[in-house]
From TrEMBL, chain B:
Database matches in SMART domains: AAA (SM00382)
Keyword terms: Amino-acid transport, ATP-binding, Nucleotide-binding, Transport
Family annotation (Pfam families): ABC_tran (PF00005)
PANTHER family for the chain: HIGH-AFFINITY BRANCHED-CHAIN AMINO ACID TRANSPORT ATP-BINDING PROTEIN LIVF
Protein's name in the database: ABC transporter ATP-binding protein
Key word ATP-binding present: yes
Task performed by this protein: Involved in beta-(1-->2)glucan export. Transmembrane domains (TMD) form a pore in the inner membrane and the ATP-binding domain (NBD) is responsible for energy generation.
Length: 292, 237
């Protein structure tokens, strides 16, 4: 039983990271109808920036905040420079854009910081959390930061005017323009926020997977999977999907014989396929109630 | 009476296809003007051109200021509220959120709150349904919501594209009654595009008839309604 609880809690901790990545993917998908393949690389680059700041002697939380600002501005800049001109381009052009962005960021990080694996600090420490062997303080920190982030985002989108405008711009762009919303900037804002959310995920997971240019590859696949599982049209679903992925991955690795660490990913993806066969819109995919 | 909207030699294009061929008309402050015409005459295109949602050339002046080459969202900020065909409802959001979105460009939060109450007084059914997803409203209720959302801007000019479309005759009567009231009491100038010429002419003071992208007739709504020849040849009733 203790092993089970331990695996579930550890799953929730990594699931929190998948949830952040899934949320970032869904935010951009809602705004521009494309999956951002470079989401993980953007997060990785931001994490390197925070690492660099700490190397220069900036304390952890200051580096954390500066990195968020950097990631936000970077996300807005990427949208303005690369994807705004592609807004009306065919799907494949956009896909090519994302792949290019992936390669550019990945190689730049390798060029600047090289491909060796680096230790990344945790502000929470890695001692047992509250004296219990079930979960470490860093894992508890991952969950705590993610929960705070999610609550903050919920209030932002539900109770602020700019959040309302962003939702409107994503759901019916033409009507949004007709009430005076600058939809183009709302998309850029969405990119900035998605990029900052990804940066948080990167900084939280870096102590676990270590820092290197390919660190987010696996995480992003789980993030995509979580987003698809929860439903690409539902930010709430993406978050739930993220947590479910984390838990399932750990339980499968522990209890299904022969799976272990190597087969965790394929098993998780197989689960998603089976869910989608039954519910193609994902678990929480939008069912718009409409009168005919 | 001052001219609020002045459209001169308006030409609009969908790709290579020209939809408006030098259309000119004007609308006085405080008036309720209707644009009539058959399917495909260019009524919707005219409204879309005013809000720069379709490529066009020619002069569009609002209150003496040119609107050409401004983005749709900045034209809205001049106080022009456009209720598009199909109503443009944010179907996944609640009724109240739709109303708040109508006022998204305004800064006076107290005024917004009291305006929402005012809309609920105009349209009591919206108050009953204020927490409901807008997509679940009936067609008539959605049209009320669309008009209310437009009024939340405190517009000087409201553009309405076929408000009667798909509504039961009784509901249309109701809606047109409210539009007349808004025009008289709130001093909102209205430009309404309609296929239901008979109703529109009853409501409006000024009327223009469009055929294949040109104005072919203009005058007081009453005169056009009383002229049997015009009615038969252009309006089909």
């Amino acid at each position: 039983m203790e092993l089970f609880t331990n695996q579930v809690l550890a799953g929730i901790a990594t699931g929190a990271i998948y949830a952040c990545m899934a949320l970032a993917v869904v935010m951009i998908y809602q705004a521009i109808d494309h999956l951002n393949f470079a989401q993980g690389e953007m997060a990785m680059f931001a994490t390197f920036v925070s690492w660099q700041l700490m190397q220069w002697g900036v304390p952890y939380w200051a580096a954390f905040v500066i990195t968020l600002v950097f990631a936000f501005v970077g996300g807005v800049a990427i949208e303005r420079i690369l994807f705004k001109p592609l807004a009306k381009a065919p799907v494949l052009t956009n896909v090519a854009g994302f792949i290019a962005l992936f390669a550019i960021i990945n190689s730049s990080a390798g060029l600047i910081w090289d491909f060796t694996i680096k230790q990344y600090p945790t502000p929470f420490g890695s001692s047992p959390f509250l004296g219990s062997q079930l979960i470490s303080t860093h894992q508890a920190g991952m969950i705590g930061v993610t929960v705070l982030l999610l609550i903050g985002l919920y209030f932002f989108f539900q109770y602020t005017r700019i959040g309302l405008a962003m939702r409107a711009a994503a759901s019916v762009p033409e009507s949004a323009r007709l009430v005076g919303i600058n939809t183009s900037w709302m998309i850029a804002l969405g990119w900035g926020m998605a990029s900052a959310i990804g940066a948080i995920a990167g900084m939280l997971i870096a102590p676990v997977v270590f820092l290197e240019p390919n660190m987010m590859g696996g995480v992003l696949i789980y993030g995509f999977a979580a987003a698809v599982l929860g439903g690409l049209t539902s930010p709430f679903g993406a978050v739930v999907g993220g947590f479910l992925m984390g838990i399932f991955e750990n339980l499968a690795g522990t209890y299904i014989p022969g799976v272990g660490n190597e087969l965790k990913l394929p098993i998780a993806l197989a689960l998603i396929i089976s869910v989608l066969v039954v519910k193609p819109a994902g678990l929480f995919g939008r069912h718009i109630v409409k009168r005919v | 009476m001052t001219t609020l909207l002045n459209v001169k030699d308006l030409r609009a294009y969908y790709g290579q296809v020209q939809a408006l061929h030098g259309l000119s008309f004007s609308l006085n402050e405080g008036s309720l003007t209707t644009l009539l015409g058959a399917n495909g005459a260019g009524k919707t295109t005219t409204l879309r051109a005013i809000c720069n949602m379709v490529r066009s050339t020619g002069g569009i002046e609002f209150d003496g200021k040119p609107l050409n080459n401004r983005s749709t969202e900045s034209i809205v900020r001049f106080g022009i509220a456009h209720v598009p065909q199909g109503r443009g409802t944010f179907t996944t959001m609640t009724v109240e959120e739709n109303l708040q979105l109508g006022a998204i460009t305004r800064k006076d939060s107290a005024g917004i709150v009291s305006d929402i109450e005012r809309m609920y007084a105009h349209f009591p059914v919206l108050k009953q349904r204020h927490t409901q997803q807008a997509g679940t409203l009936s067609g008539g209720e959605q049209q009320m919501l669309a008009v209310a959302r437009a009024l939340m801007l405190r517009p000087r000019l409201m553009l309405l594209d076929e408000p009667s479309f798909g509504l039961a005759p009784l509901v249309v009567r109701d809606l047109f009654g409210i539009l007349g009231k808004i025009n008289r009491e709130d001093k909102v100038s209205i430009l309404v595009v309609e296929q239901n010429a008979q109703l529109a002419l009853e409501l409006a003071d000024q009327a223009y008839v469009i055929e294949t992208g040109r104005i072919v007739m203009s005058g007081k709504a009453k005169d056009i309604a009383n002229n049997e020849e015009i009615r038969k040849s252009y309006l089909g009733y």
